[in-house]
Amino acid sequence: MDETGLVTANGAGTCTITATSVLDPSVAASCTVTVDTVNLELRGTLRDADGNSKLFTWDLDRDDTWTAGASVSITPAAAAYDKSSGSLYLQETKHSYAMHQVDEETGEILASSGMARSGLPTWDLAYCEYFGPGEAVGIYGTYLGSPGSLMKNETVYTGWDFFTYLIYVTGAEKFIAVASAGHQELVVPEPQEDGTTIEKLTMLNASTCWMMPAISGSLVCTKQMRVGPAAFWI
Fold this sequence. Notes:
Helix content: under 10%
Distance between the termini: 34 Å
Strand content: over 45%
Structural class: mainly beta
Radius of gyration: 23 Å
Shape: extended
Number of strands: 19
Order of helices and strands: EEEEEEEEEEEEEEHEEEEE
């Protein structure tokens, strides 16, 4: 606690904070505060301080920084992990932004696509469970791509331009990250003429995507990573 009364957590646990009046020490109040850590492991790809491309893991509950894994022979710009097949896909920054399927344990390239159909790099990728194996959505600038095949390299081949929404509604300039929150079915009861009710599937929320817009191209992280461009998945 500092001189202004601001309390800052420095570790996981539970403590009791008591405030006592200076003028009348008999006046006091207490509260119990519990600090939890983020029980989550990130897996991803990055370039280290020497410019080497690597896969990494980061246990946010236990570790202050990432742990290096296998080296990758390409320079990745975006990554997607297909949970249904256990496949890792990396799009590289060179060779017309080719997409590669990579062995997560060894970093070996298992398959490669041709050039990106849009001719544009994907800034970030998100695998979406509903769309099927090997499909994902991507972002580029103010564009959100429609779901596309990763190995056909068409994640930003078609999509939507959110320029007006970003500028005039959010005050941001572009997208810098996208993530999928899964999918769910929405079933709505529909009354019938005979007085009965049936449940009708009226909409399938195919992919709830969370997109992080950038204001002046800046992103502030709570933990420092002394690395180059990085992409990660959970």
